[in-house]
Structure formats: C-alpha cells, structure tokens
C-alpha cells in the first residue's frame, strides 16, 4: 500500500481546508446528515485516513465496519477498474452477468449451514433486512416480526420501525409499520439479576411475549443482530442466540440474522453466528461485503427463497457489476490475507489493554466485543448510570489527537472500535495509547 502508515498532524483538527469544506457542506446539505468528525478525506488506506489539510489519522472506524479489507484495497481497486471500463450497468433483471451469480454462489457456500441456499443482491443493509422480512412473510403467510431491545436495522420505514432507539432514528418520523413487536435482549452488563442468569431469563421473557402477546403461530420472523451494533456492541449472553434460533425452528418462525455490521471477518469469524454454531434461516449482509461499494445480500434457505413469485424481488441497481467485482475482491482478500485471524489478533491486542484501563478508571463500566468489534461502556464511576458526557469528552480528545473513533449505544455512552482488519499493529497500539490518555485526562485514576 502506498500511503505512509503513520499518524501525522500538520494542522489542528479540523484544519483550515476542512473547515472551508464544512462551511460549504452546511450550506448545501441538510443538518439531518450529521458529521462525526469534520475532516474531509482525500485518501485512505491500510490503517489511515488522510484529510484535505494533509493530516493522517488513525482509523478506528472503517467507515462503520465497511472497509474491513482496508480502504481502496488493491484487489478491489484492480477488479473495479477493469469492470468500469467494460460495462457499468445493465440491470441484472434485464440482461444478467456472471459476477452477480459468482457473488451469490460464494455467499451460499460461505454463510453458516450446509443446506441448500439462494442469494439475491440489493444496495444497502436496510434494503437487505426489509427484503428478508418480505421473503419470510411470503413464505410463512404470517405477518408479525419480532425484534429486540437495542436493535438497529436501518432507516427505511420498515427498518426504522424494527430499530429500537427513538432519537435520532425514529423521532417524529412516524407513523411506523404495523406488526412489529419488541422483546428483551440478553444484555449481560445491564441485566437486573446479573450476567449469570441473563441468557435464560431474557429468553424466557422473549418467549413469553411471543407466545402470550403475539402468538407464535402469527410470527413470520425474528430479526436479531448476533452482536448488537449501533445499540452498543452488546454481545448477547452465551446461550441466548441458540435458544432463540431453536424456538424459531420449533415454531415455524424464520430466524433472520442481521449480520450487516458483524459480517465478513469483523468478529474473528467470517460471520458472527458461527461463534455459537447458530445457523440462520436467512442472513442479511452489507457493510463489509464490498470494500465500500454499495452492495448488500439476502442469503437464505432455498425452500423459503424459492417460494416468492417471479419478479417479486429485485431493484434497478441491486448487484451492480462494479459492486459485485468489489465483493469478489473482498472475499479473495479475506482468504489470501487470513483476515479472520487478523481480526482475532486485533481483539487479543485490544481487550487486555482495555481491561487494564478499566481496572485503573472506574468510568469504564464494561469492556466487550469479539475480534475487531470492540467497545467500552462508560458510566458514572462506581455505578452503572450511563455517562454520555465523559463519552463525548473522550471522543473529542481522540479526534483532536488524530484518532477516528465512533460512539454507539442506546444511552450514547459506548465508544466502539472497528479498525480495518489490515491495520498495522504499531498503529493499533498507538491508537490505544491515544485512547488511554484521553480516558485518563477525562477521569482521575480510581
Ligand atoms: C448499518 C446497519 C444496517 C443498515 O445498513 P445501511 O446500509 O445503512 O442501510 C442494518 N443493520 C445493521 C446491524 C447495521 O449495522
């Protein structure tokens, strides 16, 4: 990779050129489109993002878990460059092309379970989740959809309804789609009776709502993130996911795994469901699938997927040929560079350093995650009261030091880390040192 893999600050953050561009953005783009860190990017690759002022920042965000293989990854660049000169679009539903089929074949083979599968391609994570629900409803002839506390599934009418958090995703955007029901998630850190009973009790409560309030025979699908992303990188207590999957199987409910954020080696498995051997009926993927080109996929049991009538699924751009080439390059890169192992290694470096930071600073209530999907949850010291103020202060200090970090969480008190899986270790360590310093400046030692 040609970009120097170093943190380099030549102006304050944001610099003058970025500030000029921010003023233009504010005049041309509505404020509803927020900005986490107002540096305008000119280049990115490996573990760094370079801005319009020449600053080189360490990337702990991957554009929200998208550039798992790195930005402008060499295989992605070369495949897309070749394709863009050949043809840019035909619409797969009008005159098809091979790369779309090749992506579907690969996903059918690589996603959990060795049953017969089908895949179709769309443009965004929300579109994938929405289509998975369409297939589940069609195949079962049922309407209800069950989702979980802290869930995030997108911003379209159906998927914002599936999403748990009001502000900013749902606030004043109603009325919402009907037949969506929410049940508790096994959130170990915040489970009232403690993490030990969390999986069993949360499962019992979810089943109670499904059987008593909705009626299991009315439920088309259960939609769940194997690790809740926007909701705060909540890893459900062990045993919860397999129990929910089994309940679905026993009751003819389609179990839909939303792996939009967790997929493509991010968690140290190719897909996060693999960790507990859970095999979803339908799996939704997007974000990491194509190295930044817009693509998403719905992969599911052939018997469900084949039920939908001809022409019942699709879209103009779904499986665009540039995005398909990028996806093939991503899968080649994950294998060639063993990014599953790289993700695990990132977790092995980050978790102990963050655990030891937690020992020293009781503003950190919880450290969690798997592979390269890691978070810390910030609290009022000595309690579990969410501390969004400290979270924002730490973020501000990290950004000023040239470390791109993101927040998450229902209570806005989670710092999440999603480095590209190709992040050089010296940058990972340097990023962690910046974070440690930011935490100690915001909160005195315990
Ligand atoms: C980001 C995300 C979505 C929505 O994906 P978009 O491409 O933004 O529509 C859905 N589910 C999960 C788990 C996500 O993280």
In short:
By secondary structure, this protein is α/β, with parallel strands linked by helices. The chain folds into two domains: 16-72 and 338-442, Aspartate Aminotransferase, domain 1; 75-336, Type I PLP-dependent aspartate aminotransferase-like (Major domain) (Aspartate Aminotransferase, domain 2), CATH 3.40.640.10.
Task: Map the helices and strands.
Elements lengths: L15 H13 L12 E5 L2 E4 L4 E4 L2 H4 L8 H13 L11 H13 L6 E6 L2 H16 L3 E5 L8 H6 L17 E4 L14 H17 L4 E6 L15 H11 L3 E5 L23 E4 L10 E6 H4 L15 H16 L2 H22 L3 E7 L2 E6 L9 H13 L2 E2 L1 E3 L5 E4 L7 H18 L4
Parallel strand pairs: 3-13, 5-6, 5-7, 7-8, 8-9
Antiparallel strand pairs: 1-2, 2-3, 4-10, 9-10, 11-12, 12-15, 14-15
Helix pairs in contact: 3-10, 4-10, 7-8, 11-13, 12-13
Bound molecules: pyridoxal-5'-phosphate (PLP).
Model description:
It is a single chain. By secondary structure, this protein is an alpha/beta fold. The chain has two domains: 16-72 and 338-442, Aspartate Aminotransferase, domain 1 (Alpha-Beta Complex), CATH 3.90.1150; 75-336, Type I PLP-dependent aspartate aminotransferase-like (Major domain) (Aspartate Aminotransferase, domain 2, 3-Layer(aba) Sandwich). The protein is built from 13 helices and 15 strands. It has helices at residues 16-28, 62-65, 74-86, 98-110, 125-140, 157-162, 198-214, 240-250, 302-305, 321-336, 339-360, 388-400, 425-442; strands at residues 41-45, 48-51, 56-59, 117-122, 144-148, 180-183, 219-224, 254-258, 282-285, 296-301, 364-370, 373-378, 403-404, 406-408, 414-417. A seven-stranded mixed beta sheet has the order 4-10-9-8-7-5-6, with helices on both faces. Strands 1-2-3-13 form a four-stranded mixed beta sheet. The radius of gyration is 22 Å and the shape is globular. The chain binds pyridoxal-5'-phosphate (PLP). Pyridoxal-5'-phosphate binds at residues 124-126, 129, 152-154, 225, 229-230, 258, 260-261, 286-287.
């Amino acid at each position: 990779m040609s970009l120097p893999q170093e943190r380099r600050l030549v102006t304050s953050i944001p610099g003058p050129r970025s500030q000029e561009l921010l003023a233009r953005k504010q005049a041309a783009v509505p404020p509803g489109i927020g900005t986490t860190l107002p540096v305008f990017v000119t280049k990115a690759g490996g573990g760094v993002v370079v801005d319009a002022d020449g600053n080189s920042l360490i990337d702990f965000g991957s554009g929200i878990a998208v550039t798992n293989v790195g930005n402008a990854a060499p295989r992605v660049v070369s495949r897309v460059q070749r394709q863009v000169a050949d043809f840019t679009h035909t619409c797969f539903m009008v005159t098809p092309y091979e790369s779309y089929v090749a992506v579907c074949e690969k996903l059918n083979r690589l996603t959990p379970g060795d049953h017969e599968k089908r895949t179709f391609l769309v443009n965004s994570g929300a579109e994938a989740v929405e289509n998975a629900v369409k297939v589940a409803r069609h195949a079962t002839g049922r309407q209800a959809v069950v989702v979980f506390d802290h869930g995030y599934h997108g911003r379209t009418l159906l998927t914002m309804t599936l999403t748990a958090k009001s502000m900013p995703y749902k606030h004043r955007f109603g009325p919402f789609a009907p037949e969506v029901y929410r049940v508790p998630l096994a959130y170990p850190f915040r489970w009232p009776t403690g993490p030990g009973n969390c999986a069993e009790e949360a499962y019992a409560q979810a089943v109670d709502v499904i059987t008593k309030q909705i009626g299991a025979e009315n439920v088309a699908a259960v939609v769940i993130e194997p690790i809740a992303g926007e909701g705060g990188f909540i890893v459900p207590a062990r045993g919860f996911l397999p129990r929910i999957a089994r309940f679905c199987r026993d009751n003819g409910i389609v179990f839909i795994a939303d792996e939009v954020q967790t997929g493509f080696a991010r968690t140290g498995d190719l897909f996060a469901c693999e960790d507990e051997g859970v095999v979803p009926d339908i799996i939704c993927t997007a974000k990491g699938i194509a190295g930044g080109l817009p693509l998403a996929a719905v992969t599911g049991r052939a018997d469900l997927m084949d039920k939908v009538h001809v022409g019942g699924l699709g879209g103009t751009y779904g499986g665009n040929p540039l995005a398909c080439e990028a996806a093939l390059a991503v899968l080649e890169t994950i294998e060639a560079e063993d990014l599953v192992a790289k993700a695990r290694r990132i977790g092995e470096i980050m978790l102990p350093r963050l655990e030891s930071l937690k020992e020293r600073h009781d503003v950190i209530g919880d450290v969690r995650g798997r592979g390269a999907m890691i978070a810390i949850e910030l609290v009022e010291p000595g309690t579990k009261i969410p501390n969004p103020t400290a979270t924002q202060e730490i973020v501000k200090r990290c950004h000023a030091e040239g470390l791109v970090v993101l927040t998450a969480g229902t209570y806005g008190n989670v710092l999440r880390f999603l480095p590209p899986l190709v992040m050089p270790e010296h940058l990972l360590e340097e990023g962690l040192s910046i974070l440690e310093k930011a935490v100690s400046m915001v909160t005195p030692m315990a």
